[in-house]
Amino acid sequence: MSKSLENKKKKQPGIDKFVRNYQTRSKDGVSDDSEKNIVLEKSRSTTMAATPTTQFDELKSLIIGLKTEMNVKIDGQQAGLVEIKQGMAELLNKVDTFNKRMTDIENTISANDVLVEQRFHEMQNKLNRAESRISQIEKEQIRNEIRDRKYNLMVYGIPGQERYVTETEKVIKTFAVEQLKLTLEEVTKLLFVHTHRVPNRHCRDEGKPDPIIIKFGRWAEREQFLLAARNLKGTDKRIVTDLPTQLKKKRSDLAKIAFEMRKDNKWTRIKVVDVDIVLESKDNKESSWVRYED
């Protein structure tokens, strides 16, 4: 502010000179009212120009300008905040919509899961019933085969390659007399429905003859023939019942186990129980049969 006053004084050198002259003239006694008025008016004008009011007005104008500028900026910022708030509101609406859609999807998935689980249990139950039915059918089929093969016996170890039933029947009757120790009269009375060789790859791989299957016409004669098989002990020949394919493999495995048991002087037997085949053993003639368990 002092610099501003100095500048204003520099701009009015005539007034200062006039004052100095007036003071000189006063000292000399030269003055009048008009000159005094002029001097006072000019002095008042100069003094007023140099007062702080002018500086305050300038500062006030500057402040007003800054305030206006700040108001403009604040208005712009407020407009930006309004726009941001609107954007946030739109975003929140979208988030709510997304959450609702996710809830709907989760509910749909949950309902589908329940439906799928129900369908799965239904299918599982149907599958279990189907498996049970298949098992029953298989068992019934095995029972039928056992029943159909009931009158059959399989004879292993008889050499020969007969092509006709009559030839095979002669071989069997000779075998019954010579190996089973049946009388000629007993053999003559035997009623065979049919006899023939059964191709057997396992026997051929071991260089042994194919077994002969015999179908008896009378149950008593079949039992007589099977009972006489005890005379084959110590030979490479054997007589077994005819079984379905499903049981033959198990009987073969059990026969190997029974062979090892007999080395310990145990009694053994293999028999059919319903649709299964089991191995039983006992220590002596008086003891009870005990089923072998795997």
The overall strand count is 7
Largest sheet: 4 strands, antiparallel
Structural class: alpha+beta
Rg, nearest Å:
65 Å
Q: Give the CA-based shape.
A: rod-shaped
Measured distance between first and last alpha carbons = 119 Å
Strand order, largest beta sheet: 2-3-1-4
Helicity range of the residues? 55-70%
Average pLDDT rating: 82
Which parts are unreliable, with pLDDT below 50 for 5 consecutive residues or more?
1-5, 7-12, 26-31
Keywords:
294 residues; alpha+beta; four-stranded antiparallel beta sheet; three-stranded antiparallel beta sheet; 7 strands; 65% helix; rod-shaped; disordered N terminus
Structure description:
By secondary structure, this protein is an alpha+beta fold. It has 9 helices and 7 strands. It has helices at residues 2-11, 13-28, 33-49, 52-148, 165-178, 184-189, 201-205, 219-227, 245-262, and strands at 152-156, 192-197, 212-216, 238-241, 267-273, 276-282, 290-291. It has a 4-stranded antiparallel β-sheet. The longest helix has 97 residues, at 52-148.
Summarize the structure in short:
This protein is an alpha+beta fold. It is built from nine helices and seven strands. The strands form two sheets. It has a four-stranded antiparallel sheet. Strands 5-6-7 form a three-stranded antiparallel sheet, covered by helices on one side.
What is this structure's SSE topology?
Layout: H1 2-11, H2 13-28, H3 33-49, H4 52-148, E1 152-156, H5 165-178, H6 184-189, E2 192-197, H7 201-205, E3 212-216, H8 219-227, E4 238-241, H9 245-262, E5 267-273, E6 276-282, E7 290-291
Antiparallel strand pairs: 1-3, 1-4, 2-3, 5-6, 6-7
